[in-house]
Structures are given as C-alpha cells and as structure tokens.
Specification:
alpha+beta
C-alpha cells in the first residue's frame, strides 16, 4: 500500500457484470477488520483508501479482502444492440421505438458490451426477436411474420422489464460475500417426495460438499426442465445460529 493511506486491490473475485457497475465508496474488509473504501479501478486492478487512517494498520501484500458494502448506480437499464442485419429504415424505426422506454432500455453502440441484441430471425427474416450475445433467441421473444419493428418493441416491453429485474438481481447477488449461512432450494412437489430442481447456498453455509451450486438438468440443457402443471416450492434453510428474516 502507498503512504499508509491507499492500497491497490485485485478484484478477481467480483463477477464481471458487477465490476462494470462497481461504484465509488463501495467497502471491503480485511481478515483483520480494516475497512477499505473503493475509489477507482482499471480492469481488475483497483485503488482503495484505508477507512481509519489514524489507526495503525497491519495490511500485508496478498492479504484477502471481502466485500462489506456494494455501491451501484441509481439508474441502471438494459443495453440493447441493434443487429447489423437490420435495414436502415428498420434501425430508424427501432431507435424511435426504444426512445419511448429509455427508463428500461438504452440502445448501445457496437463498441459497448450490450446485454441483448434486437434483430431478425435468421430462418424467417420477417420476424423480430431478442437474442443473447451468442446469437441464441431469448425464449418467448420471437414475433409473428410481418410484424412491424415498432410493434415488436412494444410487444417486448414487458419482457424488457422482466430482464431488467433479473439484471438488477444479479448485480446485487452476494453469494460469495454474504455473512449469512443459508441454503435455498427450489423443489418440484410430487406425491412421493420433493425433487430438487436447483439448490444454492452462501459460502458461509459451505460444509465440505463438492460444489455450492447444484441444478437438475435434462436432455443436456443447462436450464432445469419441469413438466407443465408441476407444483413448485422454495425451501430456505438457516445453517447458522443467527435468526434470519424473509420477505415474499
């Protein structure tokens, strides 16, 4: 660290999508209790200030730090790239349509990393939909043949709201830094016994298992599949002696 006041950190433990939005004054804590105030970063290298500059510090090179407070921007939206395969008039219409929902979605330039891509289906060019960055169509976003661009954007607006909520959820997820020892399980209820669809737990709840993330997958897909009409339930287990409170 520099002059006993500033330190250099490596943020390799932060999810990439979180690092992009990581805000000034986020706080990290060392294993010995010193608080560090995040100031800036260049890639994975960050500058932070020691919170209590009057106290004698025992920071060492290579010492592990953990998140304590994560600061995110107040206004976060989805970023959508218009596919290069769209005609000029289609791009104009799409830009105009997206301009009415800037609170939820912003159009991004090609040099910026988008969350999704708006474009036409390759097998049916007269249909519009939303795609992941690897070109996979997002489920239930493909429109009807002959649909106008503006109508497509209007149709997708509720979907954008859901995707934005998921993005905000991912940005605030703190499985690695949570001080709670909790396990959450999504189960499919049947007449015999509950079947685990997905299970996650915080690192504080990790107790010798081979992984902290489990998911039931079928047909080789990474997305859990359950029969239509199945009854689902959540199970939350407190693995510590501290009380926890849930909101639904």
């Amino acid at each position: 660290y520099e002059d006993g006041k500033a330190v250099e950190l490596w943020l390799g433990g932060l999810p990439l999508q979180v690092l992009e939005y990581y805000g000034v004054n986020s706080r990290l804590i060392t294993t010995t209790g010193e608080q560090l105030i995040f100031k800036s970063h260049n890639g994975l290298t960050a500058k932070a200030q020691i919170s209590n500059q009057d106290a004698t510090t025992s920071l060492q090179v290579g010492q592990v730090v953990q998140e304590a407070v994560r600061v995110l921007p107040r206004n976060i939206s989805l970023t959508v790239l218009l596919d290069s395969g769209l005609e000029r008039i289609e791009r104009v219409d799409a830009t105009s349509a997206f301009a009415t929902i800037t609170r939820i979605v912003n159009i991004t330039a090609t040099e910026q990393k988008p969350d999704y891509i708006f474009g036409k289906l390759k097998n049916i060019p007269s249909r519009y939909g939303l795609f992941s960055l690897d070109g996979e169509v997002i489920l239930n976003t493909a429109g009807e043949t002959g649909e106008a661009v503006k109508v497509a954007v209007q149709r997708l607006t509720p979907k954008f709201s859901t995707l934005l909520a998921a993005k905000l959820w991912r940005l605030t997820e703190n499985q690695g830094s949570s001080r709670l020892a909790v396990k959450a399980t999504l189960e499919m209820v049947n007449n015999i016994s509950p079947g685990v669809v997905m299970q996650q737990q915080t690192w504080r709840g990790f107790s010798g298992e081979s992984t902290t993330h489990k998911a039931l997958t079928t047909l080789g897909t990474a997305i859990p599949t359950v029969p239509v009409g199945s009854t689902m339930q959540y199970r939350v287990e407190n693995l510590s002696a501290r009380p926890i409170y849930l909101m639904n």
